[in-house]
Amino acid sequence: MRDEREFDGLYARLEDMKKRAIRGELGISAFLSPRELHYACAYLGTEGYMTFGGYSDAERKRIYFLPDYMEGVGDVSSLADFGEESGIEAVSVKGSGFVRLSHRDFMGSLLGMGLERSVIGDIVVTGGVSAVVMCDAKIADFLINEWTEVGHDKVRCSRVTLGEDFSPERRYAPISDTVASARLDCIVAALCNLSRERARVCVVSGLCELDYECEERPDREVTPPALISVRGYGKFSVISVGELTKKGRLRLTAQKFL
């Protein structure tokens, strides 16, 4: 089970930002992972804040707490009407074109420069040789001036303005299988190509997340659409579980994030 204190620090920071908004200041969080964002939104409810990560389909986002005088602001772009900014900049990172670079290469290089993960949003790799990095506006100049190497390749950085139609090229591997039931252990077995018993052990050992929440009950029913992460095996999107086969099994349609 999830340690109830796991997100206490996050909740405390959110409360501090809410107080800042009450004092008439714009409160902005660090970049949050999808899991952190899930728990943050569950803690905050549905009103009094906005989320944004630099583009419409971002995974890592910041939370914005608005003071009363900004009541009615519907999206982050409207902050400019009050002399405020999102605090997010996009930095283009271009390699030589002769070395294949992965998300891990870019992330490892950033962390190797002493940066905290919380000041970095999504890293959108393009063509395997370059990337667009969402970052806290305060570190954009540092990246542009100091970031010169990723992996074993030289890179050049510059600011970039993203169009409204900007969208990352996300890659998936399709999965089609049949399962005895929609139980979590059955689904995990099919997604990860494991035996039913090995899948059950993964679940009860706390290695599985269902929609960003740790789930240790093998008999928990999975209701699509659902996101399942299995430590050591990857992240999956369950699209459908249904349509009985002649043998009485359920057809599973899913995708693995690559």
Helix percentage: 10-25%
Fourth CATH level, the homologous superfamily of the largest domain: RNA-binding S4 domain
Question: How many independent structural domains?
Answer: 3
Given the structure, what is the number of helices?
6
Give the DSSP E fraction (strand runs of 2 or more residues): 25-35%
From the 3D structure, determine the CATH topology of the largest domain: Structural Genomics Hypothetical 15.5 Kd Protein In mrcA-pckA Intergenic Region, Chain A
- The separation of the N and C termini measures 27 Å
Biggest sheet, spatial arrangement of strands: 10-15-14-13-11-12
Give the C-alpha Rg: 21 Å
Shape: globular
Under the CATH scheme, the architecture of the largest domain is Roll
Largest sheet: 6 strands, antiparallel
Helices and strands: which structural class? alpha+beta
Written overview of the protein:
It is a single chain. This protein is an alpha+beta fold and 258 residues long. It contains six helices and 15 strands. The chain folds into three domains: 68 residues, no CATH class; 73 residues, RRM (RNA recognition motif) domain (Alpha-Beta Plaits); 86 residues, RNA-binding S4 domain (Structural Genomics Hypothetical 15.5 Kd Protein In mrcA-pckA Intergenic Region, Chain A), CATH 3.10.290. The strands form four sheets. A six-stranded antiparallel beta sheet has the order 10-15-14-13-11-12. Strands 5-6-4-9 form a four-stranded antiparallel beta sheet, covered by helices on one side. It has a three-stranded antiparallel beta sheet with strand order 1-3-2. α5 crosses α6. The radius of gyration is 21 Å and the shape is globular. It starts with 7 loop residues before the first helix and ends with a strand.
